[in-house]
Specification:
This protein is an alpha/beta fold. It contains eight helices and seven strands; from the N terminus they run E-H-E-H-E-H-E-H-E-H-E-H-H-H-E. The radius of gyration is 18 Å and the shape is globular. The structure holds nicotinamide-adenine-dinucleotide (NAD). The site of nicotinamide-adenine-dinucleotide has 29 residues, from helix 1 and helix 6.
Length: 263
């Protein structure tokens, strides 16, 4: 018996949102390397096409699609096109996300709406669309955040969305479990990606490496393992939850954060 076989996704089709960068790009790459045909979906089509080029260079199969996950009709169309073009949908990774830092007392309504739409409502719309076509054995994975365990200044809107995503994960797990569809979350800790880098771009548009490195050092020091996560670490958790290796796991959130929070 070769235990690695249970992680194989040969013959399966996966959609990964926000796969034009960071954790989504790493997840799409790992799922493709495991044998899945991957739909690389992102608002940023150029980023998605780069991911597809990387996957093809490694011998994998992928297509790029532009989608705004905040648009329920677009998420429905993405799922429908996937099934009509590739025949099925086995794995959906609701990964796209944005962060806008601002104290809660100053958050304007349109900004709050946007954060909830991209980070939270997208999980509902994507999962609803997927649930219409998924067969038993399928898996939905939602990218949450370690912020579900903490309160930090300036991240309240984002935390509300991610905590809501955890609630959707658990309730979908209960509701879709009888149909053999599993729903789980991955909660990355601080990871070097577009979201964390954007905070260190100054008013002139210059990336401030030293401030970024200092924050990364503080984040690493706060974790028992003494390190921050890389995008690939969350991607491996996505692979586990997407594959039959986790066939008895649903409604669960895997924290990929060096032990920075535990629950
Ligand atoms: N990097 C971290 O420290 C960290 C920690 C915890 C959770 N996360 C979560 O990981 C996920 C991936 O983020 P990342 O860290 O890889 O950042 P990233 O900025 O590198 O990637 C996010 C991707 O989402 C895409 N996107 C944004 N809005 C979209 C929309 N409306 N429709 C479709 N695509 C959209 C972006 O174009 C980008 O390619 C997010 O849900 C984020 O909240 C990140």
């Amino acid at each position: 018996m070769d235990p690695s076989n249970v992680f194989r996704l040969t013959g399966k089709v996966a959609v990964v949102t926000g796969a034009g960068s960071g954790i989504g790009r790493a997840s799409a790459g790992v799922l493709a390397a495991a044998g899945a045909r991957v739909v690389v979906a992102d608002l940023d089509l150029a980023g998605a096409e780069e991911t597809v080029a990387d996957i093809k260079e490694e011998g994998g199969e992928a297509v790029a699609r532009r989608v705004d996950v905040a648009d329920p009709a677009a998420m429905g169309a993405l799922v429908d096109e996937t099934v009509s073009g590739l025949g099925r949908l086995d794995v959906l990774v609701n990964n796209a996300g944005i962060m806008i830092r601002r104290p809660l007392a100053e958050v304007p309504p349109d900004e709050f709406d946007r954060i909830l739409s991209v980070n939270l409502k997208s999980v509902l719309y994507g999962s609803q669309a997927a649930a219409r076509v998924m067969r038993p054995g399928s898996s939905i994975v939602n990218t949450l955040s370690t912020i579900i365990d903490f309160a930090t200044a300036g991240t309240g809107s984002y935390a509300a969305a991610k905590k809501g995503g955890e609630a959707l994960t658990r309730t979908f797990a209960v509701e879709l479990g009888p149909r053999g569809i599993r729903v789980n979350g991955v909660a990355p800790g601080w990871t070097d990606t577009g979201i964390t880098r954007q905070r260190h771009v100054d008013d002139a548009g210059e990336f401030q490496q030293s401030g970024f490195d200092q924050l990364a050092g503080r984040m690493a020091a706060a974790a028992p393992l003494g390190t921050v996560a890389e995008a690939i670490d969350s991607a491996y958790a996505v692979l586990y939850l997407a594959s039959d290796a986790s066939r008895c796991v649903t409604g669960h959130v895997i924290r990929v954060n060096g032990g920075a929070s535990m629950a």
